[in-house]
Amino acid sequence: MADFDTNPTSLYSIKGIVILDQDGNRVVAKYYDRNTFGTVKEQKAFEKSLFSKTSRNTSADIVLLDGVTCLYRSNVDLYFYVLGSTRENELFLDATLTCLYDAVSVVLRKNVEKKALVDAMDTVMLIIDEICDEGIIMETDAQAVVQRSALKSDEVSFSDQSVSQLGFSFIESANKQFKWSLLK
């Protein structure tokens, strides 16, 4: 991985995406800059420092901490952070943060709380992967991210489906098989 601060790429990049709970504990974290955030110990120390600085300050949504530009947004019991280098465009970092928050909000049906987020952790990780690939911002449109990361009805296990959904999918599958048997 290249050094984010000395490599003047033309691609917009971020150093990490972090979601913390109201106590400052990590819920989700994905770091892309191995030089700044090399070990888990360094990551946890940065998260503790970041939370202590942002949990008190409700007036700002951007801070500069240890040479890292941090944009954040809080909701109920979660804090969403997008981390970038000091030379990175804050508007793109803000667009990334907005996309992350809006996509998670849509997936959680506007119930953006820690319990709901943990229950949908697989989809949240897919959302983060759709937004950013190895630090390069790939998408900032929340609807496009949700469409690409949403589970298809075929991928949902039977335990996650209601009886009516199971009956409907069974009838739909039977109809398709019947049509194909008539065409043969």
UniProtKB/TrEMBL annotation:
Its main location: cytoplasm. It is a peripheral membrane protein. One of its GO terms (biological process) is retrograde vesicle-mediated transport, Golgi to endoplasmic reticulum. It comes from the Eukaryota. Keywords: Cytoplasm, Cytoplasmic vesicle, ER-Golgi transport, Golgi apparatus, Membrane, Protein transport, Transport. InterPro entries: AP_mu_sigma_su (IPR022775), Clathrin_sm-chain_CS (IPR000804), Coatomer_zeta (IPR039652), Longin-like_dom_sf (IPR011012). It is found in: Cytoplasm; Golgi apparatus membrane; Cytoplasmic vesicle, COPI-coated vesicle membrane. GO terms for cellular component: COPI vesicle coat; Golgi membrane. Residues 14-150 form the AP complex mu/sigma subunit domain. The coatomer is a cytosolic protein complex that binds to dilysine motifs and reversibly associates with Golgi non-clathrin-coated vesicles, which further mediate biosynthetic protein transport from the ER, via the Golgi up to the trans Golgi network. Coatomer complex is required for budding from Golgi membranes, and is essential for the retrograde Golgi-to-ER transport of dilysine-tagged proteins. The zeta subunit may be involved in regulating the coat assembly and, hence, the rate of biosynthetic protein transport due to its association-dissociation properties with the coatomer complex. Oligomeric complex that consists of at least the alpha, beta, beta', gamma, delta, epsilon and zeta subunits. Belongs to the adaptor complexes small subunit family. This is Coatomer subunit zeta.
